[in-house]
Amino acid sequence: MKKGSKEYSRDKRSPTPKSESVSKVMSANKAKHSTPELLLRKRLWAMGLRGYRTNYKALPGKPDIAFLKKKTAIFVNGCFWHRCPICNYSLPKTNTAFWEEKFGKNVSRDEKKTLQLQQAGWKVLTIWECELKKDVYNVATGILELLKPTE
Question: What is the mean pLDDT of residues 114-119?
């Protein structure tokens, strides 16, 4: 094993997959600072947009990006895990009941945190991974427009 690398270990919160390689791939998914998040943040930074907080714990759902002064929360959702309505992924073919329940809880939690923020007077944006892959510049431009001061 390389110096500084971690040995792979299953966390046992999900059913045992049919192969160790599937388990490794699924375990490698990050909860924060994911590739789509970093892509959007780098684009926003390049466009001169500063002053946001990442994974701000004081807000429901710990938004991936939060503009506190503008009361705007942004969630960057992975299409598979959060059940993107654009991509419309099918359920995995093994352990289907587990995944159906897992995805249902994810979607329900997403809706709940969005509602909590909106009730507290926040604007909430959900950006899908596929939207960023398609045109991160356009997504970032839309965020800039949303955050512009109103006259």
Answer: 98
